[in-house]
Amino acid sequence: MAVVKRTCLPLILLTAKTMQPVFITDLDGTLLGHEDFSFTPIRDDFLNLLDRGIQIIFNSSKTATEIRALCDDLDVKLPFICENGAALFNADLLVGDIPLVDTMPSSMVLGTTVEALMAAWDEAIDPSLRRHCILLDAMEPKAQQRVLGLAGQQLARALDRDFSVLFSFYGPHEVFADLCSQAAAAGLSVHSGGRVHCLSGQHDKSSFNTMIRQRCSPPAGKAIIIGFGDSDNDIALLSQADVACVVPRPRQPVLQLADPPPKVITAPQPAPSGWVLAASQALALLEQQQ
User: Fold this and answer.
1) The whole model's pTM is what?
2) 164 & 143 share domain
3) Model confidence over 11-60: pLDDT tens digits?
4) Can you count the helices (H) and strands (E) in the chain?
5) What's the domain count of the chain?
6) Do 262 and 188 reside in the same domain of the chain?
7) Burial of 230 by CB count in 10 Å (0-12 exposed, 13-18 middle, 19+ buried)?
8) How many whole angstroms separate alpha carbon 220 and alpha carbon 51?
9) Structural domain harbouring 156
10) With contact defined as beta carbons under 8 Å apart, do 189 and 111 qualify?
């Protein structure tokens, strides 16, 4: 007998039907522990949120292969966005009052292929800037392990990229700013995460927000996007959310948003426990607004 994985239940709201909370969450350092990528302490809390009808969408710089492995470990099947907004998978699982499963494509791609990214990188980025960068694909496996904190199959999944290129940068801030400017002029983006930088097309973690908001909104109300993040590459997602939940990083300043949404919640602890505490505060806030 086939095993049916847990998904979000069909619109069981904690609040009145004018509001549908939608969690869009980063993974490393936000939902998963910053150093050990631990999730165990909040696993039951996470699954309880799904059972209560909260739509949860993973949104990460991770690859599709990595996120599918995480979903398999949790025994869930969820919509997810990979490689910093490059693609949305399982879009047909986005929960709305009007069933669109038959017409909603299961995947949507905004990203640029790795081959096209590298061609633009070699052509448009000045060699004097590129020399400050070391592509992870060019590193020895031990160096890759040291940079990403991963080994074996986990490392292989992290390097299985379709729409982005990881690199480490060694140089002054002003040189990095010049690199980002040249990349933007060439139609590329540079995203800075907790461990590495990421070259991609011109998309970010907020690129699917509008579509998600439209798809998940009840007919007489709206979806309330609650974004979760901890690093610079989460700023777009957090800024374009209705409620931003910032999870602090160990031994680092709390992420600041230059253009924050009306409500910003700063979790009292790092991941993973900080994630569930911020989630509880966000849901309590929505209930107060009813």
Assistant:
1) 0.91
2) yes
3) 434 444 578 899 999 999 999 998 888 899 999 999 999 999 899 999 99
4) 10, 12
5) 2
6) no
7) buried
8) 23
9) 114-201
10) no
Residues 179 and 241 in one domain: no
Q: What is the DSSP letter of 149?
A: T
Residue ranges in the chain assigned as alpha helix (H) = 43-51, 64-74, 114-124, 127-130, 141-148, 152-158, 173-185, 209-216, 235-239, 273-288
Helices 273-288 + 43-51 axis angle, to 10: 30
Provide the token pair at 11: 């619109």
Residue type, 143: A
Locate 1 and state its tokens. Answer: 């007998």
Same domain, 187 and 225: no
CATH number at residue 119: 3.30.980.20
The per-residue pLDDT for 37 is: 87
pLDDT tens profile 219-274: 778 899 999 999 999 999 999 999 999 999 998 999 999 999 999 999 999 999 99
CB atoms within 10 A of CB 167: 21
| Residue tagged 């060699």 (tokens) | 127
CA–CA distance from 11 to each of 6, 43, 97, 113, 209 (Å)? 14, 21, 7, 36, 19
Residue 195 has pLDDT above 90, yes or no: no
In this structure, the answer to whether residues 70 and 143 fall within a common structural domain is no
Residues 201/189, Cβ–Cβ less than 8 Å: yes
